[in-house]
Amino acid sequence: FTEDHYEKEVTVVARVDNARVQSAKLAFLMLRQQGQKVQAVIAAAEPISRQMIKYTGGLNVNSIVQVTGIVKKPEIPISSASISHLEIHIRKVYMISEAAQMLPMQVDAEGAPIVTLKTRLDNRVLDLQTETSQAITWISSGVSELFAEYMIKSGSRWIFTPKLVGAATEGGSGVFEVKYFKRNAYLAQSPQLYKQMCIAGDMENVFEIAPVFRAEDSNTHRHLTEFSGLDFEKTFRNHYHEVLEFAENLLVFILTQLKERYATQIATIQKSYPKAGDFKLPKDGKALRLNYMDGVALLKEAGVDVSEQESFENDFTTAMEKQLGQIIRDKYDTDFYVLDKFPMAVRPFYTKADPNDKRFSNSYDFFMRGEEIMSGAQRIHDIKELEESMRAKGLEPNQEGFEDYLNAFRQGCPPHAGGGLGLNRIVMFFLGLPNVRLASLFPRDPQRLRP
Ligand code: ATP
Ligand code: AMO
């Protein structure tokens, strides 16, 4: 409420955050709407009966009520930032939707849950009502909005590719099989092949926001079996770095604008997760780009055994990625950076090898706080080269499921590159949340299929 409401009658619909009877003549309600709170007072006076005071003070916590009253200054000033400094003197109270008497989840005085992550996720609807979850879901909405905004401004077309696919693609592992009438189908593990087929279909610049399914038994803090993917694919003229630079600017835009547009939500989340406000962006507004081998050298300098990484057969382990994240934060003062030129051996078959050194590839990963949020690459657009690359990775070009994809290149296809981002991971690492499940509305992991 603002000063404009002072001494005026208002009607609000809100949840009961807390209700208490002070005496036979006085009761208090704390009302809550999307994390914002206002105190309401009911005192005996014409036409308010003692029975109405008892009823109001005894309302079940979380019930949704409609309250009409006059806005006044409270006798004891309210100092909390999330509670209005004005209060409502109640005239009428109507029950809109009553909550059960026993809530399965306890919250502290600040409204933060005081239970385990499992209990929070089991009771996710209640958990979503908390101030912190409200703010996190706004950040997630913000990342999607900013991604779409930037893509559309760049002339990109919003596409929707099938999630039910006829064959296990992208190499075969990690797909969910589902019944499809008399056949089997699979849930798409990435829009990869379709976004490239759109490029072959002369669409030039495309993006998608859609679910991605991974049948991987990864029980970690950052793996989900269904996550929200932000994907894009673009043609380029001379060099794949045109697309890489585009992706870097896209991320700098998203992260900078999040800080600007969602400062209130970030401050709220910071009360429960202190790192939420400390994400460091490069000071010059340009992404820090290093090569994979620069990363190897930085780790080596720090005394880490990187012999397997130097042999180009193995990607960084999670522990190495995190350590590199810390080294880069200390040295370059940024939590967001890009590694370019990954070894060919650790990338998928559709990745273009570096023409100057075939041990490497024209591919990149983006990191936030030392953990991967995006993978991308220049793609092979020449059919012969693509078939050779498949064979080199142990895939048979004639095998079922690849023919439509490969046919797309037989008609000619312009050079292109792209990337795939994990929405939940961006939210998680931007806010420094300890678990990706907190950045998913109703998370799916190997153990969890409900709520
Ligand atoms: P991608 O997006 O390519 O899947 P990622 O880095 O998140 O990227 P992986 O490459 O599959 O995922 O795995 C990376 C790291 O995640 C591994 O090095 C490992 O430390 C960890 N990880 C994956 N699966 C498990 C698991 N089941 N248990 C523990 N850790 C795992
Ligand atoms: P990749 O497999 O690296 O690349 O996935 C892209 C991004 O998706 C996110 N991600 C996940 N998020 C939550 N849970 C998971 N299990 C999970 N797995 C991946 C990460 C990751 O960086 N086709 C390529 C993209 C491309 O080249 O365009 C691909 O799918 O943030």
Topology record:
Blueprint: E1 9-23, E2 26-33, E3 36-43, H1 50-57, E4 64-72, E5 83-97, H2 117-122, H3 124-128, H4 131-153, E6 157-158, E7 164-165, E8 177-180, E9 183-187, H5 192-200, E10 205-213, E11 226-235, H6 241-261, H7 263-272, E12 288-291, H8 292-301, H9 307-310, H10 318-332, E13 336-340, E14 363-368, E15 371-378, H11 383-392, H12 403-410, E16 416-422, H13 423-431
Parallel strand pairs: 3-5, 6-10, 12-13
Antiparallel strand pairs: 1-2, 1-4, 2-3, 4-5, 7-9, 8-9, 10-11, 11-16, 13-14, 14-15, 15-16
The protein binds adenosine-5'-triphosphate and aspartyl-adenosine-5'-monophosphate.
Estimated helix fraction: 25-40%
Strand content: 25-35%
Tell me the series of helices and strands, N- to C-terminal. EEEHEEHHHEEEEHEEHHEHHHEEEHHEH
Rg over CA atoms: 27 Å
Q: Give the distance, in angstroms, between the N- and C-terminal Cα atoms.
A: 35 Å
**Unreliable parts:** none
Overall pLDDT:
93
Q: Can you list the ligands bound to this structure?
A: adenosine-5'-triphosphate, aspartyl-adenosine-5'-monophosphate
